[in-house]
User: Fold these one by one.
Assistant:
Number 1:
Amino acid sequence: MRLVFSYSARMNPEVPLTFEAARARVDAYISQFKEGYFPPLLMLARLTEETGEIARVIAHQNGKTPKPGEDVGDLELELADLLFVMICMANERGLSLERGFERMMTKVETRDADRWTKKENL
Amino acid sequence: MRLVFSYSARMNPEVPLTFEAARARVDAYISQFKEGYFPPLLMLARLTEETGEIARVIAHQNGKTPKPGEDVGDLELELADLLFVMICMANERGLSLERGFERMMTKVETRDADRWTKKENL
Amino acid sequence: MRLVFSYSARMNPEVPLTFEAARARVDAYISQFKEGYFPPLLMLARLTEETGEIARVIAHQNGKTPKPGEDVGDLELELADLLFVMICMANERGLSLERGFERMMTKVETRDADRWTKKENL
Amino acid sequence: MRLVFSYSARMNPEVPLTFEAARARVDAYISQFKEGYFPPLLMLARLTEETGEIARVIAHQNGKTPKPGEDVGDLELELADLLFVMICMANERGLSLERGFERMMTKVETRDADRWTKKENL
């Protein structure tokens, strides 16, 4: 697989992962294949699947016994699987998780500023 | 709200958003409040809700008529709401979306390298 | 709307609701409309939405404060909304929830018979 | 396992499955075990998992290639797994899917009566 940027820099703590690099890496991966991005409703089905996988791990960590032969699962990896689908979804629609994050945080910091109990002396 | 880094730089295209900055911003937001992070199963309930919100928008864009008075919704913002819950989930458990992304992409690029049809002359 | 069976009998405790009556009632409702059943992936989007609505109610009942102006929600009605989509999904594919229930219970009662702690003297 | 009612009648087409019989059968199954019903948030995690399983099957039937070694799945059984969790959820809270269905259909038949295009000469 040919990619236009070096992967080796990514886990270097001096070169932290940006949303743009994650977007570009997923796009480079998908763009190798003739199939390309799934259409939106199929991508949503994938999103729902991955949300279900996260649910399985969290259930296992909080009171549900795994079936015989089933392992507890790896939450970090399941979150990353979900993130992969979200990046695909944004890429396919021309949306930006980075811009969305900014818009959402502005909303949360404003709208919900008094929804919870502020710590004193903060 | 006291935050240790400047927000104004974030949307500057020369200072792109990193996963670490997103993690820290969510943590700064949550840490203001006595309630802190929700416990894992409640956080999962929030994740499921937000996945449902994404489903609603994508359904509206793909054949479902909104109810009277209901708008189509904003997919970028709904993706960001889901991302917020994922960052909370990772923060509360001490997991890293950045590390998870690296692990997942390594898996995907290896395991699924021949799952789809490669474009020729790539 | 013309339906071939009487509704008035349904909530009569001497005429309890069968899965077949529920299936037929949903089919009669949908069959009035030219649009008919949604295709499977759009129906799945609806299913995901309704699962999200259930999550919202259960989150509200278990530690999440509703947003200003938002009510706690009605779990019985949200479960019924999900059931509606499931019946649509089964009807559209020619599947039977009744037969599925039988197959699933046989599996559960056999496979999981020793997964949990039996009460003594049962 | 000892149950207080006969199962043999259930698949007899002359004795169709009622929601009450399904409720009672699930309750008899769960009541054998000391663990009993899961608490609501854990049950919701199970619901999310099962919704994800349905998504996986529908994705497989609509354009997603199963991973090597993975089968397409059985939608009828996955719907039944979801139904099982819903019945547990209703039982644990003292809610009735039968009553919910009636309430929901009344709402749908009224509220959405003109949302879609009526067939002519119905």
Number 2:
Amino acid sequence: MPIELLQKKDSASLEKALQEVSAALEGKMDQLLPEPENGEARVIEAMRYSTLSGGKRLRPFLMVASAGLFGVCREASLQTAAALEFIHTYSLVHDDLPAMDNDALRRGKPSCHIQYDEATAILAGDGLLTFAFQVLADPSTHPDPAVRCELIRCLAQAAGCRGMVGGQMIDLLAENKELSIDEVIRLQRLKTGELFAIGCEAGAILGKAPRQIRQALSGYAHDLGLAFQITDDLLDAEGSREKAGKEVRKDAKRGKSTFVSIMGIERARSQAQILAKQAINHLSVFDERASLLREMAEYVTTRKS
Amino acid sequence: MPIELLQKKDSASLEKALQEVSAALEGKMDQLLPEPENGEARVIEAMRYSTLSGGKRLRPFLMVASAGLFGVCREASLQTAAALEFIHTYSLVHDDLPAMDNDALRRGKPSCHIQYDEATAILAGDGLLTFAFQVLADPSTHPDPAVRCELIRCLAQAAGCRGMVGGQMIDLLAENKELSIDEVIRLQRLKTGELFAIGCEAGAILGKAPRQIRQALSGYAHDLGLAFQITDDLLDAEGSREKAGKEVRKDAKRGKSTFVSIMGIERARSQAQILAKQAINHLSVFDERASLLREMAEYVTTRKS
């Protein structure tokens, strides 16, 4: 993944940069993950099956693009992005379980518990979450242990019970319950926003950027995450199973409050666009090197899957 | 927990030291765990319910006792022990799930998924695992970030798919399958031994002890872990539900190979005693400050629950 690509300005370069980061990330994750061997091979196969399955890789892309702002080296950047994607993937594997969202389809393939079984899926998720921290703590991620510790601390906070795990708890409790718009925003901030934000912040942590710069990236990411989620709700309400690569209209079936159910399709669409603009405003401290992050803000609201 | 206690020689001091570490640990975990607030309160309640529930606290004790060999300060020692216990507890919560071992009773109380529900139990386990790494990465655990990273790397390795998670996978696949004694030893080494070993090694990491000393403690802990597991099998075969605080004769019901099913009760008992002696031999590099670790080797083979 040539870093130069992350600095080009023309809009066709976003798609290309996304593809290149995605391919480089796939290779990195393949290299990092253990081989399926011995009696425990099955859980490692399930970890590899769930991880090496394509997907948009938005979070790792945000990470690599943010790190690019600070001239972080390719290896540090990709390895941290891989750890982030292991955590995102574990959350999908556990969320898909019958006791949780009970989804049989993920990224156009059978979910982990369908391909294997529930016990293996629980363990594969546990294994991926644990492995993410093992990778981050390794000296090969960054020579400075203080940087590695800060990555781990922030990522654990974003993924934990006051972050992503907490968001999923709120989401499960919200079935057949009417939420206010503020409650939906907080739910999504925890469930999706925190991991988006740490994705962008991690680039700044690797680049030892000052707090103010970290906050600008975090602000960008939170608005982007919300715009992304509203678009997800729109795709769920309007999209087809084939295009989305997962079940659609799940939210309505479960009686869940979403941005669309509360605001209606038109207002939700315009809200997503306002958030995308707000996200871009946070990037005013950066020069044209942040152009891909700016394009990303448009991309998430116009994507079709 | 007065550190002096960890250096006393008389055998009555072991019980007392265990109780004191256990009480100090309970306080530390209570202080570290977040308060149940906001929409996500339920998952935090479940994390607290599962963690603050007594238990023998052997792993934290080993950690604190090992750290005592190197004059590590009480706070660093207890905080690392708390992280270790969060990981041990998460593994119990997930192992008890219906898709896994399906146990309704844990430490004499309803298992997490019985007290709450399956989804909450999955999330509580995820939250505890994530929180353990957040605690370890925090500067309050140890001032040197290189020490914190080494703790995280080793603990993640011990708990991951080539450690505890891998051991649980092998264990699940072993139902209704005859294992050789070597296979049972490897299963238990991964499922129980690795976390015992990192418990002891963590004390040496905190104390920046040389590699040779770490290896002696790891050797001790692996033999101790095996002796502990054989005794567990004996208690499962002979014990009562009331004394054990959990279901017994589960292994036989599931057609699992155990040390007892392969070796018989008498040989298993003598094997546990041989391992306890071997464990003590690894401690020859230490003076009388290791007396509690030596007593612990006897304790694990003679315990009644």
